[in-house]
Amino acid sequence: MLKAMDIFLIIILLKIIPLKETTIMKRFVRDQGAFSDIIVKLKEKFESLSHIFPSEILVLIDTGFEIKPPKAKKGEEEPSEEAMDKWKDKKSKAWKFQIKTIPQMYQDALDTPKQFVMIGRQSLLDELSEEQVLAFIYNELRKINSEYKLQKPDVNTFSDLIKIFGRPDWDKAYNIPNLLEESEE
Prior knowledge:
There is one protein chain. This protein has helices at 4-13, 24-27, 34-45, 81-93, 104-107, 122-125, 130-141, 155-165, and strands spanning 28-30, 57-62, 97-101, 116-121. By secondary structure, it is of the alpha+beta class. The protein has a domain at 4-127. The two termini are 34 Å apart.
C-alpha cells in the first residue's frame, strides 16, 4: 500500500502540480479500485496490452483541477458567446488522463513497485460517458510499448483508434462503442 508521502513525492517530482500548492494531499486521491479494475479488464481483452502489469500502475485522481468558466463583462449578465466557445474548446482540448513514468530512484523508494502513474482529472471525467472513460484509459495504456517504456502516439496508434471507434473524433463523441462489450481487436 502506498503511503501518503509516496504519493506526495510522485506528484511533486513529476511536476504534476506546482510546489506552491498547499492542499496537495487533499487535491489528489488514490484510486480505490474502479480505474484499476478497468485497466485489468482492458488488458485481459486486448492482446496489444498483454505486456502491461496493472499492479505497476498507480492511478491518482486530481480532484482540484478545474477550468473555470468565463465571467460576464462589466454591465452584462452573461459571458459572451465567444468567451463561452473558447472555454468549451479549452475544456475539450485539456487532457483527461495522462500516464507518466515514475523515475527509477523514486520507484525504489516506494513500498510497492509502481513504474507508471496515471492521472485522471475528476472535473473533466465527470462530463464523459463510460465509453469515453474506457477509451481514454485504453489510449493512455497503448502508450506503454513492449519494452515497457512510454512512447509518443504515432500514426499507427491513431489509425488503430479510428478503426476501433469508427471515427476520428472518438475523443469528443458520446456515441462510441464500449470497449469492454465490443468484439476483439
